Fold this protein.
Amino acid sequence: MDYLFIPFFKFVIGYIFSVWWILLPFLVWFIVKEKHLITARYTYRGKLKWIFLEIKIPPYVKKSPKAMEEIFYSLHAVFRKGDPWARFIQGFTPPFYVFEMIGHNGKLRFIIRCLESYKDFVASRIYSQYPEASVELVEDPLKDLPWKIPNPTFDVIGCEFIFTKLEDDKKTPKDYYPIKTYEVWEKLPEEQRIDPISILSEGITYLSNKEWIIIQIMAMPVPGSDKEFGREWASRGKKEVDKLMGRKEKKEPSPFDYIFEFIKNFFLALAGQKIEWKVGKEEEKKEAEKDLMKLTPGEREIIEGIERKISKPGYWCVVRFCYVAAKDVFSKNRDKNVGLVMGTFKVFDRQDMNGLIRDPKTIPSIDRPITYFKSLYDEKVFYRKRLIWAYTKGRWNTDYDENRIVLNTEELASLYHIPSEVVPSYGLEITPTRYIPPSPEVPEV
């Protein structure tokens, strides 16, 4: 037997070595795949034309953030994953938007950056909810800033925001846990409502022409069950609800389970005993016994919050902020303006669910200054003038990124919307109080 096995073994080894070159293209592909994708995406995105649209609202327009949520619902329709040939060979990546709030010289501007081909689509969605608005094509609002910051003239501080809740690996965010949204403060009496964007716009009225506050949200529409774009955030949310409800994870019966059940029932029938098909039914019976009312009020609210979030379309986002100013005013106003933005984002925190906090790795320091960043995933001019720093990982490739979070339309509208009631920036004229002395008839003490 050994004499027969050894020649056969030698034949197999020799055959493998004689046709090794057939595997060479596959080996080369795995080696050069990353480099090829970078080059292909750089070439693909270099051919795209981007524009900036500014939303201008006349005074005394009162609108709920719900109007902006309806806009995000419509804008979500542009998602296209593309076929494998387009994504891996031609470098196609799904389209996305950049929503910006830029404060400068006492004014807050709302900018949307999108592909030129989407201009009419985006404008029509805005007009459908804000018929009084004006959507204008503008130049890059940050074109006057230098390409490299900090420099002898300007200084900067900023960060990226991440979710407070993380998975067990301490890296992947729990995207399915919601943050506080406008639905919470709109349920309050009118005198108790606090719109975070109104707080931000009020603070920006004190900015000089040497200061910029920039909040940037890069948002890519993603489906809830897609693994490549969005980390299956909605599917993971459903599993989290099952876990909180005490349900066991559903497992589809294997073919062997059906065969074993059939054989067991066959012999039971021969013996004249009652048979019952149990495969796939026992788990359903156990789940039917669970009662939502047995949970605590806090647990019910968390489950309802997760289900509410995953029921709406989502955007895969990178949320950034930076404060840029001339050196003569930077140190004097830095703490005040950074506190203004941090206070605005603090409004969205929920201790029992999710919130937005600064990522320490993206806060500038002497060791990590914000410098020129040449991105291979978007055109260079846009990123040069966008203050996107090299030590962050918010590049739009297909790899999972720690600083990418999923916001549904309700959350995105809470972070980016026209203030609930737009009033002129100069506000109301304040009349000084006049001192009136007490009546002479009042005795002195």
